[in-house]
Amino acid sequence: MDWLEEYAEKLRKYIKNTSIGRAALFYLFAAVAGSLACTKLTVNLMSIWINVMTERMPLPYGKIRLIVWMRQICPYFYMAGAIVIAGRFFIQNKIKTPMQEMRQALLYMSAGDLSFEMAWRSEDEFGRLVKDLENLRELLKREKISQWKMGEEQRKINAAFAHDIRTPLTVMNGYTEFLKKYVPQGKVSEQMLMEKLERISRQGDRLLSFSKTMTALQAMEKREVQCRPVQIAEVVNRMKESAEGIKQKGVQTGLTDQMGGEGLVLADVELILEAVENVVLNAVRYAEKKVEIIIQYKENKLLVYVKDDGEGFSAKALREADTVYFCERKEGEEEDGHFGIGLSITKMLCEKHGGELKLLNSVEGGAIVVTSFFVGTRESKSAY
After folding, report:
1. Residue ranges covered by each domain of the chain
2. Is there a contact between 313 and 361 (Cβ–Cβ < 8 Å)?
């Protein structure tokens, strides 16, 4: 009887995955067929019973009429019962179960719990509705995680800002106390006074730069992604123009297109260019002779690899280079006006566009920075 169980399982799956209208017709057909079968069986049994009883003894006219009446009414009785039973199975299997699943999901979502996963799987209208609700849950979950990450990032930014402004404030306070103490006593020459004031001024400029970076970071967090259908060729050409415009003496920049064909993607080109330019500018600073840029499309994402032939990332930089205000300098190296926010901004832009930032070291030497951006499935122009 294994074949019968296998057939019944296939039939159950078919009914579960078929549309609600077809399932209703199937249950109605099953109800009609069942009622007709029961009616036929009942009529035959009654006819046999009447014949057997008549052969033994004559039946009263009243009993014969009752049996005939029952034989006439049984089709309606069976039909009504079959429709009720089929309707209960239809509601239970096609409507009640997915409705309970969606109601439970909405209760979880209204309570702020997005960790659940909807178990109902079918290809009918309710199945597609459950999938849409599951996609909404995933979207809300990603948004919630993103907000949490942004909050954590903002706390890190505030902590880093408070830590980094402590040094210039301490220096300014020390020079101010020195001047307040010794200028009235006439122990400070004009040259020394100007030197101290110049140092105070430089620290003030540094604080101003810090405040500008904070303003830039806050503006970046509020920035919205504005995607539009754009030709792949346009993305590549804009990136080539950007790479050619970033030059440094003795360093060459080259771009290799591995997108593999034409078509349209959904992208915020300006955001992507800004993120890639930050990486290329950083690579040019540390490169010796050349910077290579490779563009690829893989699994609905635009991937941009930026490789330089410099010393590569240190172990600490691989862990922390994409954090705010990270700036690793060699011993004795002076500040160059960079506050270490380029890669952190790039990471923020990548995540806004559904991608990520990765930091690697090449086996051949040099650093590799991979930026990815979700751009959807490549489509022909007519698809938009």
Report:
1. 2-136, 165-222, 228-383
2. yes
Q: What is the pLDDT of residue 381?
A: 43
Predicted pLDDT of residue 292: 92
- Indicate the residue type of 95: I
107: tokens are 């209760």
pLDDT by 10-residue block (mean), the chain, 384 residues: 65 71 82 86 78 66 70 82 84 80 83 77 77 82 78 70 72 84 81 84 77 68 82 88 77 84 84 89 87 90 92 85 67 48 82 90 90 79 37
Q: Give the end-to-end CA distance of the chain in Å, rounded to a whole number.
A: 53
> Which residue type sits at 337?
G
Distance CA 267, CA 130 (A): 28
Instruction: Judge whether 202 and 231 are in contact, CB under 8 Å.
Output: no
Return the CATH fold of 228-383: Heat Shock Protein 90 (3.30.565)
Are the CB atoms for 275 and 358 separated by under 8 Å? no
79 near 34, Cβ under 8 Å? no
Cα separations (Å) of 238 from 39, 274, 312? 77, 11, 27
3-state secondary structure of 303: strand
Closest residue by Cα to residue 376 from 345, 350, 355: 355
Question: Cα–Cα distances in Å, from 35 out to 67, 81, 362?
Answer: 19, 8, 75
Predicted confidence at residue 308, as pLDDT, reads: 92
